[in-house]
Amino acid sequence: MPLAWISSYPKSGNTWVRILLASYRQDRGVRLRWAGDGFKNLDATDPDLYDLFAEGRMLPLDDPRLLTVKTHLLPSAEVFEPYRDATTKVLHVVRNPRDIMPSAERFLTVSARHREAFARHFIAHRGMEGWQRYGYGTWPQHVREWTTPDVLRRHFPRAELCVLRYEDIKRDPVTSLHTAIEFLGLDRMPDLGRIRRAVGHSALDKLRAAERPDPDKPAFFGTGLSGQSLTSYGPGIEDAYQALLRDDPQFAGCVERFGYGG
Amino acid sequence: MRALTWVSSYPRSGCDWTRVLVASYLLDVPAPDLDTDEADRVAPDLMDLFNHGRMVPRGDDRPYLVKTQFHPGVEALRPYREATGKVVCLVRDPRGVISSHVRAQRLAGEERRWLALWMVEQLAPVGRPSQDAGISGASGTWLQHVRDWTSAERVRRHFPHVEDVCVVRFEDLRRDPAAALRVVLEFLDVAGGVDADRVRRTVERSALRDILAAARRAPARGLAAFQDNPPPVVEVDDAELSLMDIGEDVEAAYRKRLAEERELAALVRQFGYEAG
């Protein structure tokens, strides 16, 4: 059975890509099912690793269809061990860390009076420290390990890799979805009309209107802004980010590689 | 290398309490003050490990015991088939399980009664002989879970190298936690033998009420500093609620279920719980 991971650092567009793929597969808008910390099981071929495990189950490797499974974990995570040989594809979604920060701030309900401290924390830890503890790594570690073919193949020896930038999906979702469908082999000849319908069903404003999260939690889908300035976090935050770019070659290398410089 | 030991129970039957007591003893730290990482090193919860992308360590760093509420036959435990050597199983009176669960859901009146009636129905597989039924959910029914974890012979169907099973009744753990902890530690064969003073210290500093209150206070690591509203401290009400308190028909349904399902009644009786 072919198995594909849809990987990303949190708040980088993973759910959006899965919704686009499920909308294409179903040729209609997918029904969103909020389950505590995200939208789960958008499609029969989009199982959630955690939900399955909580039910005492493993990914069904005998399913003849391609399974596309979301993950924020590093590729070295131990829970991937039963799936290393079955993994044939990795579709990685990368987003500018400047935009992950405000998206995380909203998702994690950071209070207005702690915004500056949150931004300093995010910059100092190259992401959320709590997410490192969950096995997601720092942002540059996560991106490097999933998008460097030699590193990735240490963990998934049969995996082909395709990287999509969140910003490109937003700018041209039709082309991005076409790329994803071709890469995953969902259709030998992707149907352009169906792709356009899937993109229409999955527009961020429609998803925001359709989501029904816990009323005590913030909305899952934000406005999807790109290349945001950090000046609203307070004096010195933009400078701190620039210092990070100057002083941390791994972080700067990742930022540069995906065109997020400056 | 130490054999892998599971501490298992049907939900709301004292599995986590036991795990925390063992970690507290091994680290000699009061349970409410336990560092999560340190506790996970000696006695983790399988679900927590998975949520952090991890599996149970297989080398010399293997913990003393690992908590699970899964039925022994689920797929998720198969990677540990060969490594498992021991099982500690906590068993609780199904009436207590139901009562604890409905209280935890904070339901009132009719909703509470309906949930309890549904749980009574789910104590054993519905509609066919329990031997032929598949496992219900991740834990199985109470009957499946307790029957298949408390018999070494049945456990060996899933974990062939299991030497022994240590069964502890939740009610005994609550009545005399020091004695129950000593039994578990002796079964685990902890290095240097069981230290009676340390057991006493552990239990004195690790009341269930304090453990639960600490767990509810614990903020998400690295996040609480940025939020205005940390989760409220919820008082733990440990008053027992009988099925009669929930509804006379709940108690009647329980008795009827036992009368209909002989295997369930026998298991209830085996562990000293009134079966009629």
Task: Please describe the structure with a list of short key phrases separated by commas or semicolons.
heterodimer; A: 262 residues; alpha/beta; Rossmann fold; 4-stranded parallel beta sheet; 44% helix; globular; B: 276 residues; Sulfotransferase (chain B)
Report on the biggest sheet of chain B: 4 strands, parallel
Query: What letter string, H or E per element, gives the SSE order of chain B?
Result: EHHHEEHHHHEHHHHHHH
Helix-residue proportion of chain A: 40-55%
CATH superfamily of chain A: P-loop containing nucleotide triphosphate hydrolases
Say how many strands of chain B there are: 4
Major sheet: arrangement of strands of chain A: 2-1-3-4
What is the CATH topology descriptor of chain A?
Answer: Rossmann fold
Q: What is the distance, rounded to the nearest whole angstrom, between the alpha carbons of the first and last residues of chain A?
A: 43 Å
Written as H for each helix and E for each strand, in order along the chain, the element string of chain A is: EHHEEHHHHHEHHHHHH
Individual helix count of chain A: 13
CATH architecture identity of chain A: 3-Layer(aba) Sandwich
What does this entry look like structurally?
The complex is a heterodimer of chains A (262) and B (276). Helix content of chain A is 44%, strand content 10%. Chain A is α/β, with parallel strands linked by helices and 262 residues long. Chain A has one domain (3-257): P-loop containing nucleotide triphosphate hydrolases (Rossmann fold, 3-Layer(aba) Sandwich). Chain B has helices at 15-27, 36-42, 46-51, 94-104, 109-121, 142-150, 152-155, 170-175, 177-188, 196-204, 208-217, 243-246, 248-260, 262-270; strands at residues 4-9, 66-68, 84-91, 164-169. Chain B has a four-stranded parallel β-sheet, sandwiched between helices. With 276 residues, chain B is an alpha/beta fold. Helices cover 46% and strands 8% of the residues of chain B. Chain B is built from 14 helices and four strands. The chains are: A alpha/beta (262), B alpha/beta (276). Chains A and B meet through helix 2, helix 4 and helix 5 of A and helix 3 of B. Chain A: This is Sulfotransferase. Chain A: Keywords: Transferase. Chain A: Belongs to the sulfotransferase 1 family. Chain A: It holds the Pfam family Sulfotransfer_1.
